[in-house]
């Protein structure tokens, strides 16, 4: 029991450092952030940070993996049942809720993209981005395939193309929500989904 408690404390400490680092990276960017600043934000000593991470790059990657994991977990809990249309609406609402929840920290997402393009962390970040996008696209494609099997979605629809476009729309919507703080994200999402579904549903 003692070993388990110690491990729990270590896990909690590590997550607290990651959460503090996320705020520091969002405010100062990767280049402007320092391990000392992250330690101060987490209310721990600099040496404590190095007990859990080898470098600032390792902390940055841990923040990225945590945020991607949180999104995947949030979306994975969406199993509403019902028709394909109903499932798409629930999933899209969950995605938009995540966008609203994280819009203030979207500058951190831009830091991830910048690092994925040019930094030594490129390969690990790109691999994680690809895995995330593929997971979301496959989830949507599965819903659409089920809809085709039940006659709810036109049989000639390219479900992989639609799934890719939907994920791309939500991704871009997150960027615009960050740039335009008064944007009605729910309304835009609902309007786009309604228009798209009009073309997917078989006509009577």
TrEMBL record:
<dbReference type="GO" id="GO:0003700">
    <property type="term" value="F:DNA-binding transcription factor activity"/>
</dbReference>
<keyword id="KW-0238">DNA-binding</keyword>
<dbReference type="InterPro" id="IPR001647">
    <property type="entry name" value="HTH_TetR"/>
</dbReference>
<dbReference type="InterPro" id="IPR009057">
    <property type="entry name" value="Homeodomain-like_sf"/>
</dbReference>
<feature type="DNA-binding region" description="H-T-H motif">
    <location>
        <begin position="34"/>
        <end position="53"/>
    </location>
</feature>
<keyword id="KW-0805">Transcription regulation</keyword>
<keyword id="KW-0678">Repressor</keyword>
<feature type="domain" description="HTH tetR-type">
    <location>
        <begin position="11"/>
        <end position="71"/>
    </location>
</feature>
<dbReference type="InterPro" id="IPR036271">
    <property type="entry name" value="Tet_transcr_reg_TetR-rel_C_sf"/>
</dbReference>
<dbReference type="GO" id="GO:0000976">
    <property type="term" value="F:transcription cis-regulatory region binding"/>
</dbReference>
<keyword id="KW-0804">Transcription</keyword>
<dbReference type="InterPro" id="IPR039538">
    <property type="entry name" value="BetI_C"/>
</dbReference>
<dbReference type="InterPro" id="IPR050109">
    <property type="entry name" value="HTH-type_TetR-like_transc_reg"/>
</dbReference>
<dbReference type="InterPro" id="IPR023772">
    <property type="entry name" value="DNA-bd_HTH_TetR-type_CS"/>
</dbReference>
<dbReference type="Pfam" id="PF13977">
    <property type="entry name" value="TetR_C_6"/>
</dbReference>
<dbReference type="Pfam" id="PF00440">
    <property type="entry name" value="TetR_N"/>
</dbReference>
<protein>
    <recommendedName>
        <fullName>HTH tetR-type domain-containing protein</fullName>
    </recommendedName>
</protein>
């Amino acid at each position: 029991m003692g070993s388990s408690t110690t491990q729990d404390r270590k896990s909690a400490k590590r997550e607290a450092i990651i959460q503090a680092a996320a705020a520091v990276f969002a405010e100062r960017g990767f280049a402007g952030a320092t391990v000392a600043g992250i330690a101060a934000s987490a209310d721990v000593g600099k040496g404590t940070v190095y007990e859990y991470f080898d470098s600032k790059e390792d902390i940055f990657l841990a923040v990225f993996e945590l945020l991607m994991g949180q999104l995947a977990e949030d979306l994975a809990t969406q199993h509403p049942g019902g028709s394909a249309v109903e499932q798409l609406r629930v999933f899209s609402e969950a995605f938009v809720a995540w966008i609203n929840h994280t819009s203030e920290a979207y500058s951190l997402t831009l830091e991830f993209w910048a690092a994925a393009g040019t930094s030594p962390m490129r390969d690990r970040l790109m691999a994680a981005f690809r895995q995330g996008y593929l997971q979301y696209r496959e989830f949507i494609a599965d819903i659409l395939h089920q809809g085709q099997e039940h006659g709810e979605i036109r049989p000639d629809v390219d479900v992989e193309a639609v799934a890719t476009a939907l994920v791309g729309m939500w991704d871009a919507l997150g960027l615009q929500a960050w740039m335009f703080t008064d944007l009605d994200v729910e309304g835009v999402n609902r309007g786009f989904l309604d228009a798209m579904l009009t073309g997917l549903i078989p006509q009577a």
